[in-house]
């Protein structure tokens, strides 16, 4: 018998005859009186991301302004012509999101249309993400309810950053160094 099998056998013996335990799933949902767009923008800004809250009609012009002359990866399904697909030479990526969480300032990609592949969103140094106001939920339970658990999920809370033992912050180690977010109202 392998060590794994032995451990699982011991666990099985220990719980034999135990009744099923109901786990409550009545998580708090929603926040009373909060403006979710404002809260999300504030939290994303706290992470040192660049945030723009603008009317939907202004989004295409703002995208053009943010991208400038950068060579960008534009994933299939993103509403913008053209694209740059070479990870080695792209300056950044522009995506939509699946859902955004106001309480945590987190953007979730499920890599559906307009969201690119995981490598397209983690390798470039710059990420511009467009978030619609109706994609912003109060907390993690609401986000989980909107997501398909079978899809690959990337959770983004600000630009990539880490600190060494002396607490020196280093950005861009395991993802984009710069995160810019357009919130479309």
TrEMBL record:
Residues 87-183 form the LUD domain. It holds the Pfam family LUD_dom. SUPFAM superfamilies: NagB/RpiA/CoA transferase-like (SSF100950). This is Lactate utilization protein C. It comes from the Bacteria. Gene3D superfamilies: NagB/RpiA/CoA transferase-like.
């Amino acid at each position: 018998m392998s060590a794994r099998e032995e451990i699982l056998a011991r666990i099985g013996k220990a719980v034999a005859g135990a009744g099923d335990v109901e786990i409550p799933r009545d998580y708090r949902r929603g926040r009373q009186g909060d403006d979710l767009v404002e809260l999300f923008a504030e939290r994303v800004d706290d992470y040192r991301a660049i945030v723009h809250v603008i009317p939907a009609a202004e989004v295409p012009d703002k995208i053009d302004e943010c991208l400038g002359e950068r060579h960008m990866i534009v994933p299939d399904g993103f509403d913008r012509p053209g694209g740059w697909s070479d990870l080695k030479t792209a300056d950044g990526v522009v995506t939509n999101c699946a859902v955004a969480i106001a309480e945590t300032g987190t953007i979730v990609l499920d890599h559906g249309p307009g969201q690119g592949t995981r490598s397209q969103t983690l390798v470039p140094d710059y990420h511009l993400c467009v978030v619609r106001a109706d994609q912003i939920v109060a907390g993690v339970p609401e986000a989980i309810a909107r997501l398909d658990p079978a899809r690959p999920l990337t959770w983004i809370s600000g630009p990539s950053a880490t600190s060494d033992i002396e607490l020196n912050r280093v950005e861009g180690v395991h993802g984009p160094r710069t995160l810019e977010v357009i919130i479309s109202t």
